[in-house]
Amino acid sequence: MKRGRFGLSGLEPLGANIQPPRIFRLLNPEPTASRGNSRDGSVIYIVHNYIVSYICRMTDPLTLDEQLCFPLYAASRAMTAVYRPKLERLGVTYPQYLVLMALWERDGRSVGDLSTALALDSGTLSPLLKRLAATGLVHRRRSNTDERRVEIQLTERGQGLRAEAACIPAEMSEASGLSEAEFLTLRAMLRRLSTALQSTGAAT
C-alpha cells in the first residue's frame, strides 16, 4: 500500500521537505476561533481528529496477529495434543471421544442425531462409528419403531469407559490455565461464533 500524508493509499507521499511542524498543523488544526467560519472550523477539527485516531489504529489486516482464525487454529491443535496421551490410554482418538461423550450423554441416538450434535457430516461420522463398532465400544441397530432409523448404542465396554474418562475434563480445565469465569465466558463466545459462522455458511 502506498503510504500518503495521512498513511492512506492515493494521497500525497510524505517527503523530506515536509517538516514535522507542518504535519503537526495538518493533524492538529488551529482553534476554530482563528477561522472565518467557526462551524466549518469545528467540522474540520473533528474530521482531522478522526483521521489521527484512524491512523493510530491502522494495522495491516493480513498479519497473523490480526487474525481470529489463527489463534483458534493454534489453540485447537494445542488442545488436541494435550488430549492425545489421555485418550491413548482409553484407546480412542479425539473424534471418537466426542462420539462417546454424545452417547454417554444419551445412549441410543440415531446417526442423524449424532451428526447434528457433533456438527459432522455423514461422510465423516460413518467411519468413526465403524471404527468404534470394530473396537467393541458401540453397536448399530435398527429402531424398533422405525426400520429406517439406525441407532447407535454403547456396549458394556463402551459404557465402562466413561468411568476411566471421568477425570479428563478437570485435567483439561487445569491445563487451559483459565479461571472458571474465563472458561465459561470463552465457551459461550465460541458457541456464538460457531453458530454465526454456520449460519453464514448455510446462507452462501
Element layout with pairings:
Elements: H1 20-27, H2 38-57, H3 69-88, H4 94-105, E1 109-110, H5 111-118, H6 122-134, E2 138-142, E3 150-154, H7 156-165, H8 168-176, H9 180-203
Antiparallel strand pairs: 1-3, 2-3
Helix pairs in contact: 3-8
Pfam family, one: Staph_reg_Sar_Rot
Protein name: HTH marR-type domain-containing protein
Domain HTH marR-type: 65-195
Describe the structure.
Its main location: cytoplasm. Pfam families: Staph_reg_Sar_Rot. This protein has 204 residues and is mainly alpha-helical. Helix content is 61%, strand content 6%. The chain has a 3-stranded antiparallel β-sheet with strand order 1-3-2. Helix 3 packs antiparallel against helix 8. The longest helix is centred in the last third of the chain and has 24 residues.
